[in-house]
Amino acid sequence: MYGALVFVPTSLAVARAHPEWATMQYKGSLSRNDLVLLAAAELALVAAGFLVARGLLVRGRIRLAAVQVIGACLVMACAVVHGPDGDGWRRFVSADRADLARFPDYTDLGDAGPVARHVLAFLGSDVAVALCLAGAPAVGALVLIMGVLHQFGLTDAGAEGPGVIRAGFVGAVVAGASPRPPSC
Fold first, then answer.
1. Average pLDDT, integer, range 11-36
2. If you average pLDDT over residues 40-63, what whole number do you get?
3. Which residue in 32, 112, 113, 164 has its CB near the most CB atoms, within 10 A?
4. What is the DSSP string of 121-146?
5. d(CA 161, CA 150)
6. How far apart are CA 12 and CA 17, in angstroms?
7. Sign of the C-alpha dihedral, residues 66, 71, 74, 79?
């Protein structure tokens, strides 16, 4: 339900409004077919995650099932930050191809000022605002799931969980630190 009602719609809204950012500046636009494929892929990944967690619970691996969401988010974050060419993080903090082309050169720590200014400019861009607006319901739902539903599930399974507040905090940190996956 989270994937179909929250994650996929927010992801599609961002991808449709900012296709260059969503594709890591590889495509200038997304067709309806691209968006359908994106939705199908994201739903399949969410369903696979559910099935993995369910399988772990059936096998009695309760703690592993509880951290499965966090692990998946960290793997996705690492993949996006690296990117296909090692410059994923530069692509992530660039709103479009033109912004990526303006990304300052850097060779040592002394070049950090222009890079920091580029990142700050990105944080005020339309893409960053769209991510915040679209991400708010996704983060809220993930915090609810991590903080309440996982805790109750662990308690019902007879395991001592992290507690509602700590689990909610972990959910918020993971959701806040996880970039949107690229569309293609």
1. 92
2. 85
3. 164
4. HHHTSHHHHHHHHHHHHHHHHHHHII
5. 8
6. 8
7. negative
